[in-house]
């Protein structure tokens, strides 16, 4: 997310802070065909369909997500949607032999 | 461009509401059996009633395909003493289970008698219950002939409370295990249930929140003849007329906590679970019980880690816990060594805590997967965690990031993240509707199943009691006629439901919710006295009088959240009413009073019931084991039970 295409000279809106967590999934618009299966599967209605057909849904209520994962688990196009755990909810592990720490 | 802010930035305007808006518009639906709540219990209830030839309507706040606590998955069918590998008698096991104080002997007896049949029906519908692909050959507990996989949980006895002998050699030898818990591939269940509902012609109303029950003549305490609902996307008002109604919504989560801005709504219970069913039944005049029972939330909350539920300690089945230097902790595991105990003894916890302070055990701790046989690693990682509720996405995330059980040890957050505060409580699994041997509530025409009942248990309990309630409600519906709802009752409910969208400003649901939670943290948590309860009740009544009339919602979704918080407000008041009534402390109820410190005095070993009678709260009493002889009662009520359904 570099500044390119997002230069300050563009019109700037006065908008509230972004909710935390910011976005619990990341869509890949090249793979997602906007079928909205994730919109239907979500019991919380975190998403709404994109106004433009064929585009990935809009995450409207990220802070209501309870991380059940069904939107990703049940996606009919693997790779279209990937989970993006909030920074406060990441996990760690350790290679038993080398001691090297891994992290999600 | 998938966040709201990105969209605004790109297009220069916010997205329009994507669904048609139908506030105040009405739709009327007539049915024989109405089921409110499309989770595990509700789907089973709908299927079971439809198999009796009834017209069935199923109302679900989310989408039935994955909704409810058991929607994402389920790794254990927790009480199937009637399974062919079991070493215990179902009736004897039921009595043993119901020996725990303030349990629900009716639901437990139904579960123990019928949940293996229920599981076989699940398999008929396409749910996976055996290792048909021979993925886990050689795993402990796997039966070669049936390919069922027995779990260590409840290996000897049912106990969430640890046995001091656990972990000792020969504590839980294979030849004496109870074999009552079966590992299952529960992620296959919910879609199969929805499909079966469809096949049987159940009319499913997804994205509809039940808001109230309709009673004959609109009177509190009268026969239930239907319900009202709100479409949570369009705002449309639905009026359901039914001969019998089954409530199968969840308990209430997040009464004490609202910390979504930290880690999202990352409680054990999803936001959708807000006690709506309990509250609508209460308002209609049904009796509730065990409402004073609450417990501390041990994980998640947004403030603690959610990963690996069941203790937050990475001690999922069979995985030994080691310290940062690889030293094994004297910590029992949820495995064969300790017969599946869920928690260590307080003595062991204290020993580990002292060991950490003195440097004997180095933090952080790890789950030592590589020390286990490969098939056991897989049975834990792929089957248990891969199929359990919300953990599939977690292990998938780890896998993608390169974690491998063959070589890596998973970090445990137990100890390092500290204790939960006593004020982080939940009531979701404690209180609920009082039921009889037909799973009928105290109101004619109203039945309950799963978590909707008092003292509910787990997934298989929800399934078995849902299936049973569907049968009983169908039998009742066959005998009675319908009744026309009372228009005044409908108008009053419409006024209540739409009030937040008729206002042009005020207070939004999150602030209301946080205010209720704070009252409960202060006045109904660790320190309990008569005056504190009274202050709490007054504070909630003040919220009702001053804040609720200002509650404001911008769209159908926020209206749903607002109505949920009104349920939570009522639920909180019921908890305080019940708390005031129990003038004694109780260990099993998680209820310690400063002004009545004696624990479980014999004269208080009874259920307290809470009922609204002419809009006044009435407290009643019922003896423990009020259900009578469980086996006799079950048989007296189920002479016509036909066992496993054979598809026609």
Please characterize this protein's 3D structure:
The complex is a heterodimer of chains A (104) and B (648). Chain A is 9% helix and 16% strand. Chain A has two helices and six strands, in the order E-H-E-E-H-E-E-E. A two-stranded antiparallel sheet of chain A has the order 1-4. In chain A, strands 2-3 form a two-stranded antiparallel ribbon. Chain A starts with 24 loop residues before the first strand and ends with a strand. Chain B is an alpha+beta fold and 648 residues long. Among the domains of chain B are: 26-66 and 192-292 and 426-479, FAD/NAD(P)-binding domain, CATH 3.50.50; 490-606, Methane Monooxygenase Hydroxylase, Chain G, domain 1 (Up-down Bundle). Chain B has helices at 4-11, 40-51, 90-98, 105-124, 189-199, 260-263, 276-284, 346-358, 374-387, 392-401, 459-479, 487-502, 509-523, 530-547, 556-581, 630-637; strands spanning 26-36, 56-60, 76-77, 149-150, 182-183, 203-206, 208-215, 224-231, 237-247, 288-289, 295-296, 321-322, 365-367, 408-412, 425-426, 432-433, 446-448, 606-613, 616-623. The longest helix of chain B has 26 residues, at 556-581. At the A-B interface, strand 3, helix 2 and strand 5 of A face helix 1, helix 6, helix 10 and strand 14 of B. Strand 5 of chain A pairs antiparallel with strand 14 of chain B.
Layout of secondary structure:
The complex is a heterodimer of chains A (104) and B (648).
Chain A: E1 25-27, H1 37-41, E2 47-48, E3 58-59, H2 70-73, E4 81-83, E5 92-95, E6 101-103
Antiparallel strand pairs in A: 1-4, 2-3, 5-6
Chain B: H1 4-11, E1 26-36, H2 40-51, E2 56-60, E3 76-77, H3 90-98, H4 105-124, E4 149-150, E5 182-183, H5 189-199, E6 203-206, E7 208-215, E8 224-231, E9 237-247, H6 260-263, H7 276-284, E10 288-289, E11 295-296, E12 321-322, H8 346-358, E13 365-367, H9 374-387, H10 392-401, E14 408-412, E15 425-426, E16 432-433, E17 446-448, H11 459-479, H12 487-502, H13 509-523, H14 530-547, H15 556-581, E18 606-613, E19 616-623, H16 630-637
Parallel strand pairs in B: 1-2, 1-9, 2-6, 9-17
Antiparallel strand pairs in B: 3-5, 4-5, 7-8, 8-9, 10-16, 10-18, 11-15, 12-13, 13-14, 18-19
Helix pairs in contact in B: 2-5, 2-11, 3-4, 4-11, 7-15, 9-10, 12-15, 13-14, 13-15, 14-15
């Amino acid at each position: 997310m570099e500044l390119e295409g997002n230069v300050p000279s563009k019109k700037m809106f006065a908008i509230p802070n972004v909710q935390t967590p910011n976005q619990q999934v990341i869509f890949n618009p090249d793979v997602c065909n906007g079928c909205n299966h994730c919109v239907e599967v979500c019991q919380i209605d975190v998403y709404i369909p994109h106004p433009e057909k064929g585009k990935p849904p809009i995450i409207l209520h990220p802070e209501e997500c309870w991380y059940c994962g069904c939107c990703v688990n049940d996606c009919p196009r693997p790779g279209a949607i990937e989970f993006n755990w909030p920074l406060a909810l990441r996990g760690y592990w350790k290679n038993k032999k080398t001691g090297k720490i891994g992290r999600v | 461009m998938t966040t709201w802010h990105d969209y605004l930035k790109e297009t220069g305007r916010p997205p329009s509401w994507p669904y048609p808006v139908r506030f105040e518009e009405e739709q009327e639906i007539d049915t024989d059996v109405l089921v409110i709540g499309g989770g595990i219990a509700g789907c089973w209830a709908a299927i079971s009633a439809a198999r009796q030839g009834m017209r069935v309507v199923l109302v679900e706040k989310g989408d039935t395909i994955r909704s409810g606590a058991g929607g994402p998955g389920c790794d254990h069918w927790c009480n199937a003493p009637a399974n062919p590998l079991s070493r215990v008698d179902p009736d004897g096991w039921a009595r043993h289970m119901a020996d725990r104080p303030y349990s629900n002997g009716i639901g437990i007896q139904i579960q123990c008698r019928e949940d293996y049949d229920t599981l076989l029906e699940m398999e008929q519908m396409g749910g996976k219950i055996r290792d048909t692909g021979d993925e886990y050959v050689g795993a402990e507990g796997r039966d070669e002939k049936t390919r069922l996989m027995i779990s260590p949980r409840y290996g000897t006895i049912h106990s969430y409370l640890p046995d001091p002998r656990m972990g000792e050699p020969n504590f839980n030898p294979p030849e004496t295990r109870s074999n009552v818990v079966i590992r299952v591939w529960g992620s296959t269940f919910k879609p199969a249930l929805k499909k079966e509902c469809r096949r049987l012609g159940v009319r499913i109303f997804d994205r509809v929140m039940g808001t109230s029950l309709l009673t004959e003549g609109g009177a509190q305490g009268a026969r239930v003849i239907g319900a009202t609902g709100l479409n949570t996307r369009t705002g449309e008002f639905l009026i359901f007329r039914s001969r019998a109604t089954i409530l199968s919504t969840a308990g209430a989560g997040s009464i004490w906590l609202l910390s979504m801005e930290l880690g999202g709504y990352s409680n054990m219970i999803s936001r959708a679970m807000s006690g709506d069913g309990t509250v609508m039944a209460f308002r209609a005049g049904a009796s509730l019980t065990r409402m004073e029972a609450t417990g501390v939330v041990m994980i998640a909350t947004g403030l603690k880690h959610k990963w690996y539920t069941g203790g937050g300690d990475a001690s999922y089945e069979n995985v030994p816990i080691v310290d940062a230097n690889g030293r094994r902790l004297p910590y029992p595991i949820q495995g064969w060594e300790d017969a599946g105990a869920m928690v260590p003894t307080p003595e062991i916890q204290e020993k580990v805590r002292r060991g950490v302070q003195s440097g004997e055990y180095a933090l952080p701790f790890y789950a030592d997967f590589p020390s286990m046989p490969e098939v056991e690693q897989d049975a834990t990682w792929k089957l248990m965690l891969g199929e359990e509720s919300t953990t599939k996405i977690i292990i998938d995330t780890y896998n993608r990031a390169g974690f491998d059980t063959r070589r890596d040890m998973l970090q445990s957050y137990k100890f390092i993240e500290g204790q939960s505060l006593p004020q982080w409580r939940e009531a979701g699994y404690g209180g609920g509707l009082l039921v009889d041997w037909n799973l009928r509530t105290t109101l004619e025409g109203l039945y309950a199943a799963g978590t909707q009942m008092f003292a509910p248990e787990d997934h298989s309990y929800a399934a078995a009691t849902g299936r049973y309630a569907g049968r009983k409600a169908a039998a009742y519906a066959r005998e009675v006629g319908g009744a026309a709802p009372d228009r005044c009752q409908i108008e009053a409910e419409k006024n209540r439901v739409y009030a937040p969208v008729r206002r042009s400003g005020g207070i939004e649901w999150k602030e209301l919710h946080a205010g209720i939670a704070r009252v409960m943290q202060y006045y109904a948590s660790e320190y309990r006295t008569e005056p504190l309860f009274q202050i709490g009740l007054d504070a909630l009544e003040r919220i009702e009088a001053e804040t609720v009339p200002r509650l404001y919602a911008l769209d159908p979704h926020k209206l749903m959240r607002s109505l949920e918080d009104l349920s939570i407000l009522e639920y909180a008041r019921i908890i305080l009413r019940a708390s005031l009534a129990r003038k004694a402390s109780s260990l099993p109820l998680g209820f310690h009073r400063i002004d009545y410190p004696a624990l479980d005095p014999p004269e208080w070993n009874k259920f307290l019931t809470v009922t609204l009678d002419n809009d006044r709260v009435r407290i009643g009493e019922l003896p423990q084991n009020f259900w009578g002889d469980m086996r006799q009662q079950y048989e007296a009520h189920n002479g016509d039970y036909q066992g496993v359904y054979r598809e026609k």
